[in-house]
């Protein structure tokens, strides 16, 4: 029985270390989220992306800024809809899956540079 307690004690200690790693992973993949409801603003030029970021930081609605600044097909407020893990550009995906969910009125944003250009990203849902 003492052996089991010792094993449990080691497991607990390992559990603390595992917890630290799990915390890092949770931030990256939202505790195993496999799909996200994502919006973005795509700008070819860094300066245009910075202008869009400034508007968002000043309190402008993400969707409105996306309609004005985004240079891709996601002109409906930047919505890309639900995307599965593994279907997006790796740099975009790394940032998007690490983001907390938020709303267009108060977005929690991330940025990524891909071969398509500069992205401002927000996530509305995860599953």
Tell me the number of strands: 4
User: Helix amount, in percent?
Assistant: 40-55%
- The dominant shape is globular
The overall average pLDDT, rounded, is: 82
> If helices are DSSP runs of H or I spanning 4 or more residues, what is the number of helices?
4
Structural class: alpha+beta
Share of β-strand residues: 15-25%
Supply Rg: 19 Å
Runs with pLDDT <50, length 5+?
1-30
End-to-end distance: 41 Å
EC number: 5.2.1.8
Domain PpiC: 33-125
Organism: Pseudoneurospora amorphoporcata
Catalytic activity: [protein]-peptidylproline (omega=180) = [protein]-peptidylproline (omega=0)
Outline the secondary-structure elements:
Layout (H helix, E strand, L loop, with lengths): L1 H28 L5 E9 L2 H12 L4 H8 L9 E6 L5 H9 L11 E5 L2 E10 L1
Antiparallel strand pairs: 1-2, 1-4, 3-4
Structural notes for this entry:
This protein has 127 residues and is an alpha+beta fold. Helix content is 45%, strand content 24%. The chain is built from four helices and four strands. The chain has helices spanning 2-29, 46-57, 62-69, 90-98, and strands at residues 35-43, 79-84, 110-114, 117-126. It has a four-stranded antiparallel β-sheet with strand order 2-1-4-3, sandwiched between helices. A hairpin with a 2-residue loop joins β3 (110-114) and β4. The longest helix is centred in the first third of the chain and has 28 residues, at 2-29. The radius of gyration is 19 Å and the shape is globular. 26% of the residues are buried. Residues 1-30 have low confidence and may be disordered. This is Peptidyl-prolyl cis-trans isomerase. Residues 1-32 are annotated as: Disordered. It comes from Pseudoneurospora amorphoporcata.
């Amino acid at each position: 029985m003492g052996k089991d307690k010792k094993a449990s004690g080691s497991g607990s200690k390992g559990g603390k270390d595992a917890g630290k790693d799990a915390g890092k992973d949770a931030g990256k993949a939202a505790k195993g989220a496999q799909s996200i409801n994502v919006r973005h603003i795509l700008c070819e030029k860094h300066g245009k992306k910075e202008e869009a970021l400034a508007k968002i930081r000043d309190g402008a609605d993400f969707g409105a800024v996306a309609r004005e600044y985004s240079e891709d097909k996601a002109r409906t407020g930047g919505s890309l809809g639900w995307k599965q893990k593994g279907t997006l550009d790796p740099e975009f995906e790394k940032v998007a899956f690490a983001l907390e969910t938020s709303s267009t009125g108060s977005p929690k944003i991330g940025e990524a540079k891909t071969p398509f250009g500069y992205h401002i990203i927000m996530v509305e849902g995860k599953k």
